Request: fold
Amino acid sequence: MRTLQQLVRKNILDLRPYTSARSEYKGQAGVLLDANENPWGNNNRYPDPGQLQLKQQLARYRQLNPANIFIGNGSDEMIDLAFRIFCRPGQDKALVFTPTYGMYEVSAQLNDVALVRLPLSEDFQIDVQAYLEVLNDENLKLAFLCSPNNPTGNCLDELLQVLETFDGIVVVDEAYIDFAEQASLLERLDRYPNLIVLQTMSKAWSLAGARIGIGYASAEIIALFHKVKPPYNISTLNQEAALEALSDPVTYEQRRAIILEQRRWLETALLQLPQVKRVYPSDANFLLAEVEAAEAVYTRLVQQGLIVRNRHSQIPGCLRITIGSPSENAQLIDALQQMALSPSF
Reply:
């Protein structure tokens, strides 16, 4: 196993991070004249750069140490920072298992990092033999595993094997883990010092607009993320929104239960439609459906103001359907039933 010092870019190890005004003093403040702020207004002060209150609440919720938590401007910021910290532009590589979340590739291109793409099997699981064959590449620094996977919806079975055999940094993106029966890898953080677990408040916590991504890792890796991030990456308003959501776990559980029930209902309803060939098993808050004339169906739905995600370019013939409210799901099924009665494709 390569050490963290061997995996981190030298310029990041040598980096002296920017120190913001709000991070230079400790204790209570009475008069703030340090950050060139306007003295008037409701949001005139810079936010807490370390998001201490939010981390403390998350630490209690997850039974972890705040030192193991990083708050990002969505998971996308943390994906980008992982490339910046561990991959030398034009030299190092990252591993992804396709089809998967598109931002891994976008961030790789932005950071001039080559991707090694290994296709998933027919049932969207890791091809272990193909994976083992790429492990001797010394420039392979990162591996991204999305589980439950987007856009396929299923949990990946071989996560622990990757953690046991990959000597770089393993980033497991658990954006949809709240909807899965499979346990989070958070309980494995102590065992695997090369593990980064990404979660989000965008899905089950109903905060997509607040852009609260959460990274869990060793204190050493979290310190690197803090070293590289912009000083005020999470606004006060977004921190407050996250704290408010975490203070109401009953609403979280109620909404999550409805989504899980509606996932079962929508899967059953879709399978009764003649144009739906297959609905893949899902551990997420969406379903991947193989549909006859998928692009035409997508277009007709858009014309009716019903927007699903056209994934035909990634998985031929497939549409990705987010689980909406009961009335929204019923509208979708009604529209698809009407198409079946009067097909024009």
In short: Residues 249-271 form the longest helix (23 residues).
